[in-house]
Amino acid sequence: MRRAIFGGSFDPVHNGHVSLASELHKALQLDEVIVMPTGVSPFKKDMKRRPASGADRLEMCRLAFADMHFAMVSDHEISQKGVSYTVDTVRHFHGLYPNDELFLLVGGDMLMSFDRWKSWQEILSLCNLAAVSRERDGTDMDNLEKKAAELRRFGKVIFVKTEPLDISSTEIREKIIKNCDISCYVPQNVVKYILENRLYQE
Ligand code: ATP
Ligand code: MG
After folding, report:
1. Which residues pair with 157 in a beta bridge?
2. Which residues, including other chains, have CB under 8 Å from residue 90's CB and lie 6 or more apart?
3. Number of structural domains the chain divides into
4. CATH number, domain containing residue 150
């Protein structure tokens, strides 16, 4: 099996996430994409609190990926207490499926910071890294290609050109606070969940 792990805060999950997963599913001929909302991200652990709970982020991911037969939303990291490190998750799935070809899916920002992650060289020894750009204008392409080339000394790094969607969860949370419509950035069933549960409103 060709199996991928796609981690993130997903706070909230948005069309950029859904598009990354479906584009890479197609391009890499993946059999399964494991969508993995993080417990506490090592990079965001100083935020006073997660804007939405683990349970809410998990449920929003389930709704967003409900129609995608290849996507499986996992509570593996959320059900663990404390900071989640990608290396531990990759080790876990590598141990669980030793005969699979494992992939880790990331956006461009995560590719650029990848060599600051805990045990990143071990991650590259256990799985292939697959990345897409997040910038519509393509200004980051050179940097992304350069970084991918650097990382290739340590493992397989695949850069896939897609039509980027310029959206972030941070912008969506800000729009909700300002009462702006988010329905063109977030799947409709997730919009409904956010409104019904009054998420991200101060
Ligand atoms: P935040 O603003 O809270 O950081 P985010 O939109 O960056 O939210 P994350 O949950 O941090 O979303 O990202 C999870 C993964 O999805 C990361 O690998 C990130 O690079 C990728 N990603 C997020 N948004 C996009 C997008 N619009 N296009 C492509 N990849 C994306
Ligand atoms: Mg982010």
Report:
1. 129
2. 5, 102, 104, 123, 126, 127
3. 1
4. 3.40.50.620
> Model confidence over 74-125: pLDDT tens digits?
999 999 988 889 999 999 999 999 999 999 999 999 999 999 999 999 999 9
Question: Is 187 inside a domain boundary?
Answer: no
- Does 133 contact ligand 1 (Cβ within 6 A)? no
Claim: this prediction has a pTM higher than 0.90: yes
- For the chain, which residues score pLDDT lower than 70? 41-50
CA of 116 to the centre of ligand 1 (A): 17
* Ligand 1 binding pocket includes 144 (Cβ within 6 Å): no
Question: Contacts for 179-184 with beta carbons within 8 Å, 24 or more apart?
Answer: 184/15
Q: Is 73 a domain residue? A: yes
Q: With contact defined as beta carbons under 8 Å apart, do 90 and 65 qualify? A: no
What's the pLDDT score for residue 42?
64
Ligand 1 near 38 CB (within 6 A)? no
* Residue span of the structural domain in which 8 resides: 2-167
Contacts of 7 (CB under 8 A, 6+ apart): 36, 37, 38, 77, 84, 86, 89, 104
Residue 199 lies in a domain: no
* 177 within domain boundaries: no
